[in-house]
Design brief:
Largest sheet: 10 strands, mixed
Number of domains: 4
Helix content: 40-55%
Strand content: 15-25%
Shape: elongated
Distance between the termini: 21 Å
Number of strands: 24
Structural class: alpha+beta
Length: 746
């Protein structure tokens, strides 16, 4: 009987299933990519068959670790160590791929054996390159071709395949070439170790960490800060996709509720024939669970399809690989069924509590709801298109809430993205910088490395007034696992923008300034000490700049930061002050032409050229598109139900002389009015979500959502687009009803 009832309204059932399926599909696809990224990174870090991997202590991601190459000589002297090999990994920006992974390996070291050749020969000299199978296809390169990387031309001598997309979509060059190309002379990211006796691994690990307190030796599978960061990627897809599932779930509640409304007399007959309340409840709840199950199963197929479709893009395939862990499918189905239960419980309870006599007296079709809420809303707001919406207030509010969840999600994302952009721009403009320089062709600001010698060269330019070196990084401190740390030179101009409220500015090494937010969170004041990695700093000042990242972080001397992050004589950005700021645009082009290793932008527009922000915008646009699709399906379902139940009314209007255009306009205006209501509720939900996020310990300190007029205009236009897309087909259907057939409709 359950399936028979669902099939009586095939269009409505299919649209409801589709709404849930798209949400579940999004969860599956995003979770698969999140798991794929984390798993791929873990496999990449452990693919050398090393017994131990040695990295800089407290490095959040291993490729951010910087170690002196001479440390390898000391590691080789430790009893029980059989082989030591240093490696470099960097992610560069290429025209064909914004995230192109390059590995620097010793051609004679054991880790390079991981890159299994399927064509060509191993590395044997300078400026030779091995490329992955995906790279060969995406870049249309074969053995013998040339390959340009950071202004250096290499010859492809072999093609490899490891089964890890992040590797197969990248390239391998010799360690010596990598040190030269990425300006890492005498340094590596990590050392891979093999030991003679596997039973002594723990003993050797302890000896390494005792001899080198700034280093961390890890076996594959050991829990590290990197593991925590990768776990965040695993859960991110789940978190983002859940909003789409919730929107679809509220749409399902709407469908089930409308099914109860239109079958009120039928339920009354069943109750009169002896059906108990429990049986009626199980019937309606069973229908809801059946829809959820169908939506969940269809969602799994959609998720697999979306992942495969996205993987067709070379830039996606080289960085992300869908990994379908069993928990992803189980969680997706469980959530779909939970939504089915939650979406069906209220309609089921409503149906089970109908009294037989009252239910059998109820008229179907277009009868106006007689609830007190409906009557109140009709009296207060029952003008124009709103009158038809308030005739079914429950349906209207549930639909509006479902759409509002999606709209609120968009509001929250846009406000956070605006916060990121504004905060970074404020930091760039601080310190009187007119221009900002970042290393060219890097996909992530965290790997930008500018040699101090370039800063010295820029200072000699006649139009440059001052150059400030800035080094960003993430450190770990007791009570703050992820502490945003900035390294600045006390003698350079940029430090002057720190508004110290207590104490003073840093003047020398081993001193630290804390932002007000982090100082309060850690309960630290001037004169206290703070431990970062193996170093102890004395707090000399508490500042409050009004910039979220800085106020929730800390600042140390540039030399200290370079030592902490193993980036000797390097900085992340250069702030450049000019004698005549009016010449900023022209001078930026001149400096970039003279020094191709950096990109130079006006401080206010630096984010427009950074791949980090381009990637963030692309992700947000994809999530907005997902919201449009799911919300459009939910809107279409709601408007179709409205048209179905008012078929006789529409027929009467057509018989009274209404033209098709008038009927079409009426339904479309109702859809737009409903989407406008959703926008209002959604804005409130989005603001509330961000407010809750700011309450998150530590992480919330880095977030100050920014709400602009442009943001609200975009959200309202998005909601109206949902209304137009969702209302178009129902409006067309209503406009094409024949008067006689419509009046006969039961």
């Amino acid at each position: 009987m359950i399936w028979k009832n669902l099939w009586r309204r095939k269009t409505r059932t299919l649209l409801t299933v589709l709404g849930i399926a798209i949400g579940v599909g999004a969860v599956v696809s995003l979770s698969a990519f999140g798991a794929g990224f984390a798993t791929g990174f873990e496999r990449m870090m452990s693919g050398s068959n090393a017994d131990l991997s040695v990295v800089q202590k407290d490095a959040m991601i291993s490729f951010l670790s910087i170690l002196e190459e001479e440390v390898g000589d000391g590691l080789r002297e430790i009893a029980g160590v059989e082989a030591v090999s240093g490696s470099i990994m960097s992610i560069v920006q290429m025209p064909e791929s914004p995230y192109f992974t390059v590995f620097g390996e010793d051609p004679a070291g054991f880790p390079i054996e991981h890159f299994r050749l399927i064509e060509g020969q191993p590395l044997s000299g300078r400026r030779q390159m091995l490329i992955g199978r995906l790279t060969a296809d995406a870049f249309d390169k074969r053995v013998g071709d040339s390959f340009k990387l950071n202004q250096t031309t290499f010859r492809v001598v072999g093609i490899f395949e490891t089964g890890v997309n992040m590797e197969d979509g990248g390239a391998v060059i010799s360690l010596e070439d990598a040190q030269r190309v990425f300006d890492r002379r005498g340094r590596v990211n990590n050392f891979s170790l093999k030991v003679h006796d596997a039973r002594r691994i723990d003993e050797i690990k302890a000896e390494i960490e005792t001899t080198y307190p700034d280093l961390s030796a890890n076996r594959s599978g050991d829990a590290t800060i990197q593991t925590q960061a990768l776990d965040m990627y695993r859960s991110m897809g789940w978190f983002l996709g859940m909003f789409a599932v919730i929107v679809g779930g509220l749409g399902m509640m709407n469908t089930t509720l409308m099914s109860v409304f239109e079958r009120t007399r039928e339920i009354g007959v069943l109750r009169a024939l002896g059906w108990r309340r429990g049986r009626v409840l199980r019937l309606i709840l069973g229908e809801s669970l059946a829809i959820a199950l169908l939506g969940g199963l269809a969602g799994l197929a959609i998720g697999l399809g979306l992942t495969s479709l996205a993987s067709l893009s070379p830039s996606v395939a080289s960085m992300l690989q869908g990994v379908y862990e069993p928990r992803i499918f189980i969680q997706a189905l469980v959530v779909a069924l939970l939504l089915g239960a939650m979406g069906g419980i209220y309609p089921a309870l409503r149906a089970s509590h109908l009294e037989p006599v009252e239910a059998m007296r109820t008229e179907g079709g277009a009868a106006v709801a007689s609830s007190r809420l409906a009557n109140f809303l009709l009296r207060r707001f029952g003008r124009g298109p709103l009158r038809n919406l308030w005739r079914r207030p429950t349906r209207t509010l549930v639909t509006a809430t479902g759409l509002a969840v999606g709209v609120g999600f968009v509001v929250a994302l846009l406000a956070i993205a605006e916060s990121f952009t504004n905060a970074f721009t404020e930091m760039a403009l601080a310190g009187q910088a007119d221009l900002m320089a970042e290393q060219a062709n890097v996909s992530d600001m965290s790997v930008s490395a500018i040699d101090d010698r370039l800063a010295d060269q820029l200072r000699q330019h006649p139009e440059v007034r001052a150059v400030s070196r800035i080094l960003f990084g993430v450190a770990s401190a007791p009570g703050a696992e992820f502490l945003f740390l900035m390294g600045i030179d006390p003698g350079e101009e940029y430090i002057q923008h720190y508004a110290v409220r207590e104490g003073r500015l840093i003047e020398r090494q081993k001193e630290i300034m804390l932002g007000r937010s982090i100082a309060d969170a850690l309960d630290k004041g001037v004169g206290d000490t703070l431990h970062l990695a193996t170093r102890t700093f004395r707090v000399v000042g508490i500042y409050e700049n009004g910039i979220t990242y800085e106020d929730a972080g800390a600042a140390v001397s540039l030399r200290d930061a370079q030592d902490l992050f193993g980036r000797k004589h390097e900085s992340t950005l250069l702030g450049i002050g000019l004698h005549d700021p009016e010449d900023a645009a022209l001078l930026a082009a001149q400096l970039e032409a003279t020094y191709p290793e950096v990109i130079v932008s006006q401080a206010a527009g630096l984010t427009d050229r950074m791949q980090d922000f381009a990637t963030m915008d692309a992700m947000i646009n994809a999530l907005i598109l997902l919201t449009v699709v799911v919300g459009g399906v939910v809107m279409m379902n709601a408007m179709l139900m409205s048209v179905f139940e008012r078929t006789q009314e529409v027929g009467l209007l057509r018989a009274l002389g209404w033209r098709r255009r008038g009927v079409l306009s009426m339904v479309l205006v109702e859809a737009l009015a409903l989407s406008g209501l959703s926008a209002v509720i959604g804005i409130a939900i989005g603001v509330g979500l961000n407010w809750l996020f700011t309450l998150t310990p530590m992480m919330g300190d880095y977030m100050t959502p920014v709400y602009s007029v442009d943001l609200f205009v975009r959200v309202i236009l998005l909601a109206l687009l949902l209304g137009a897309l969702g209302g178009l087909y129902p409006a067309w259907r209503a406009a094409n009803l024949q008067p006689i057939e419509a009046l006969r409709y039961e």
